[in-house]
Amino acid sequence: MSNHFFFKIHRDLLREGPGNNESTRRAYRMLSEVPKHPHILDVGCGPGAQTIELAKLSAGTITAVDTHEPFLDELNRRAQTAGVSEQVTAQKASMFSLPFAAGSFDLIWSEGAIYIMGFEHGLRTWRPLLKPHGSIVVSELTWLRAAPPVEIAEFWTENYPGMQDVDGNLALIEQAGFEVVGHFILPEAGWWEYYQPLEERIAVLREQYKDNEEKLAHLAVAQQEIDLYRLYSAYYGYVFYVMQAK
Ligand SMILES: C[S@@+](CC[C@H](N)C(=O)[O-])C[C@H]1O[C@@H](n2cnc3c(N)ncnc32)[C@H](O)[C@@H]1O
Bridge-partner residues for 138, per DSSP? Predict the structure, then answer.
């Protein structure tokens, strides 16, 4: 899909992945050793729903990185509106090669984005950026039940072959040198904060591009993911993992 059409589907959405402010708050409050004014890195921030919430929660400073510049522009606008722009620095950078010195951050946060590197690779790559005993919070797509039906098993095997169950991810966290502080499942309402406006956008674009086969095919793929969640949400979900470096 062209970058332009991708952004046409995703422009101005509240968030770019499942999540909600309640869960951002819940995860933040599980952390016990964050300083009063922490320096936080938000990786794959998108338009920054969680960045703004972190700014309000933490009284810290947040460096928010993403590779898609229009999302960073949107984050800057939202930070301004929310009155937290002094706390937020939006920076174009890739999670694969983050341009920060070792030991820079008290906390690394990433909602719905570590899958891009793979869970274990992401944790191991980002860990050196933490100060001693710093923390990481990520939300990650996770199998919630064994033996998922073939249709959904095949869909995620194709789209995210590295997807684990909760125990699998907890083991990877320990192996990467962290202690698990806690974990919880994002409520289904958090999925619909993302999917509902996306589904409305898809319907509008389907009408607009009704004679364009290529674009309709892209829209069908986006709609399929939503339809599958409606059918099989009991089998997978986003799980927040809260961890501290040993
Ligand atoms: C599923 S979205 C989640 C965005 C945001 N955290 C949220 O929950 O709304 C994943 C984000 O990762 C960004 N991204 C993709 N590749 C990246 C990379 N190599 N480095 C940093 N961000 C990347 C995308 O532009 C997108 O904003």
Answer: 110, 241
Distance 120 CA to ligand 1 centre (A): 17
The residues lining ligand 1, judged by C-beta closer than 6 Å to any ligand atom, are 15-17, 19, 44-46, 49-50, 65-68, 71, 94-96, 111-113, 116
Would you list the domain boundaries of the chain? 16-146+159-188+239-245
Architecture, CATH, for domain 16-146+159-188+239-245: 3-Layer(aba) Sandwich (3.40)
How many Cβ atoms are within 10 Å of 161's Cβ, its own excluded?
Answer: 8
Measure 74 CA to ligand 1 centroid, in angstroms.
13
pLDDT at residue 1 in the model: 66
Residue 80: predicted pLDDT: 98
- Overall pTM surpassing 0.90 (yes/no): yes
Residue 16 CA to ligand 1 center (angstroms) comes to 8
SS3 for 236?
Answer: strand
